[in-house]
Write a structure and sequence with these properties.
Helix content: 10-25%
Strand order of the largest sheet: 1-4-3-2
Radius of gyration: 15 Å
CATH topology: 2,3-Dihydroxybiphenyl 1,2-Dioxygenase, domain 1
Structural class: alpha/beta
CATH superfamily: 2,3-Dihydroxybiphenyl 1,2-Dioxygenase, domain 1
Number of domains: 1
Shape: globular
CATH class: Alpha Beta
Strand content: 25-35%
Number of helices: 3
CATH architecture: Roll
Length: 123
């Protein structure tokens, strides 16, 4: 039986770990978590915020996915979008998901990221 998503793996080109660390920690507000030593030798970096984990793995022939992305639920989406913009990230609002406010952004290597918050129930 599936119970939850443990993590989402995204790819990145070789040599981009410092850029990824700056974005995921300073812009998104996540904490870097240590990779097990056997996996650390492969490069990349892992991040967490609460129960959310994003793993960035190194891929020699990296090309960012244009459609595939993690959907990350946030609270205070307006403030969170402002945080990203203040730190230089692009925020593109999308009002097409009923019952939610959401926007898209990209990490420094072009991975698409979706951020969403459900609307409070009417009444």
């Amino acid at each position: 039986m599936l119970t939850t998503v443990d993590h989402v793996q995204l790819a990145a080109p070789p040599g981009t770990e410092d850029r990824l660390r700056a974005f995921y920690t300073h812009v998104l507000g996540m904490a870097e978590i240590p990779k097990p030593p056997a996996l650390a030798a492969r490069g990349g970096c892992w991040f967490a915020a609460g129960a959310v984990q994003l793993h960035l793995g190194i891929e020699d022939d990296f090309r960012p996915a244009r459609k595939a992305h993690p959907g990350l639920r946030v609270t205070g989406i307006e403030d969170y979008a402002a945080r990203l913009e203040e730190r230089g990230a692009t925020v593109v609002w999308d009002g097409s998901l009923p019952g939610h406010r959401r926007f898209y952004s990209e990490d420094p290597v072009g991975n698409r990221l979706e951020f969403l918050e459900p609307h409070p129930p009417a009444g």
